[in-house]
Amino acid sequence: MELGRTMKVLKNSLRISHDIVEKVVCEGDVVVDATAGNGNDTLFLAKLVGESGHIYSFDIQDIAIEKTKEKLEAGKVAERVTLIKDGHQNIDKYLQKDIKAAMFNLGYLPGGNHSVHTTSHTTILAIQKCLDLLVPHGIVMLVIYYGGDSGFDEKGAVMNFLSTLDCKKYSVLMHDFINQINCPPIAVCIEKL
Ligand SMILES: C[S@@+](CC[C@H](N)C(=O)[O-])C[C@H]1O[C@@H](n2cnc3c(N)ncnc32)[C@H](O)[C@@H]1O
Q: Which residues pair with 151 in a beta bridge?
């Protein structure tokens, strides 16, 4: 199509993450939003799983839970979501069954308090627990914001951890721009084999 020639081909990490999740998550699936934040990803997931699916959405901040609730109510999909004000590292307290996907947006709440952000220890613990809960060919999708207020520690620790995953059990794919300034977020997808 002629119009397509004028469109940007390489999408940003957030768009890439949604494109991948969209290919995996179907109507009726159980999925996790590990970092609810302003509720954008939870709303996105709620549309994908439909009325018969369910989302467990975590955040440690009241403001994030409230914003997500408002967004879901406005979208008339609130009944598809269980909002949990707790750290994603405690996911096994709430979920013991199979999940199709888990999304993590690492960093701080946009427009919120920058000193409250995800941290390497709890993020890695939560990823490990999500990997255990995944069905075969389910995915954990990460968008990693780093640099600036968030620092580089979490990104480094998470990437180190992911590089140790057994390649017979998991595939890990990273999407990064290597020539940009200001640390654009990177997307990482882990598929359970
Ligand atoms: C980048 S924001 C998420 C943006 C969100 N996905 C959206 O669509 O708006 C990161 C969120 O992670 C939350 N967070 C930080 N540590 C957490 C933890 N241990 N468990 C769950 N959420 C956490 C922060 O409160 C913040 O709201």
A: 147
pLDDT tens by residue, 74-128: 999 999 999 999 999 999 999 998 999 999 999 999 999 999 999 999 999 999 9
Nearest atom in ligand 1 to the alpha carbon of residue 33 is: 6
Give the strand pairing for 134-144 and 186-192. Answer: antiparallel
Q: Which residues, listed in sequence order, are joined to residue 83 by a DSSP beta bridge?
A: 57
Separation of first and last alpha carbons in the chain:
36
Q: Which CATH class is domain 2-192?
A: alpha beta
Closest Cα to residue 158, out of 108, 123, 182, 115? 123
Q: Which of 116, 127, 192 is nearest to 159 (CA)?
A: 127
Q: Which residue blocks in the chain are alpha helix, DSSP H?
A: 13-24, 40-49, 62-74, 120-133, 153-163
Minimum CA distance residue for ligand 1 atom 22: 59
Model-level pTM greater than 0.85? yes
Domain coordinates in residue numbering, the chain: 2-192
What is the rounded CA–CA span in Å between residue 37 and residue 141?
16
Which residues approach ligand 1 with their CB closer than 6 A? 35, 37-41, 58-61, 64, 87-89, 105, 107-109, 116-118, 122, 145
> Which atom in ligand 1 lies closest to the alpha carbon of residue 40?
8
Which atom of ligand 1 has the smallest separation from the CA of 58? 21
